[in-house]
Write a structure and sequence with these properties.
By secondary structure, this protein is an alpha/beta fold. The chain contains 12 helices and 12 strands.
Length: 318
Amino acid sequence: MTRATVALERADSYDAPVVRDVVTSVVDACGGWDALVRPGDRVLVKPNCITNAPCDRPAQTHPAIILEVCRQLLDHGTKPFVGDSPAWGSLEGNLHALGVLDELRRMGVAIVPFKNPVKAPNVDGRVFGHLTVDRAALDADAIVNLPKFKAHRQLLLTVVIKNMFGCVGGRRKAWWHVKAGQYENYFGRMLVETFDLLRPAINIVDAIVGMEGNGPTSGTPRAMNMIMASTDGPALERVAAEIVGIKPARLRTLQAARELNVGTPHFDRIDVQGLSIADARIADFDLPKLLPIGFSIPRLVKGAFKNAWLTHQQARSA
């Protein structure tokens, strides 16, 4: 049986020196950049850029972590670019709201909105023969997944696996809620197979300040004071569930990872390095009351108009 390593390290602030040291530590625990990427690689840095929220509202990956990962990738001779397809607003607009857009451009890091969907064969899939994701994600030599630790009103908790759903472009994500939301964990299996198709080289979770309550956009900040990392996404998601006291059977993503034999979602096969689970545990993390995953057609149409208006407003203010 294969085993997975999950690194947990204390990080009490987003100050640049703190983030630099902790990101370095968790990456080294996962083998180091030399084992994950090669000089000259085009590396997709995939943060959570869900909406036009500033960094003091923990809906998106904090700019300090995005910038530090990009700096380290540049130092290792790679060509990082930041890509995503936000649920609300534009990628540039949401990065501007975070206060990170200008610095990324100054560093020479390209910003790549996902607007080129490709129907890709899902060779190792057991549920979906093809999945539609953005060409930029498929063509990247490596992916660094930078999710935010958040409660979620439809999935209870999102940590690692769902962040790669941002590689599905535009309103197609909402259509998946219509198509898959009414069937028993069809949506969870889609998320896991999308994650497995793209296979990030490493997953680094912003859990310095997470979001509890009515996530993924309207919850409240929760100081968690850590950064988490692993090359095995389901293993990291399983450790996250352990930290906040969620039984793995309650998380659709972990159910699907077990069913589809993706990654290492079994706690007894995971080696935790750095901070212990006992020291990381948060016994009173506020979880939401679950809502249905499925979207109705009227909700889909309303969301499309709302997003078009928001994107237009962001473009006007740019």
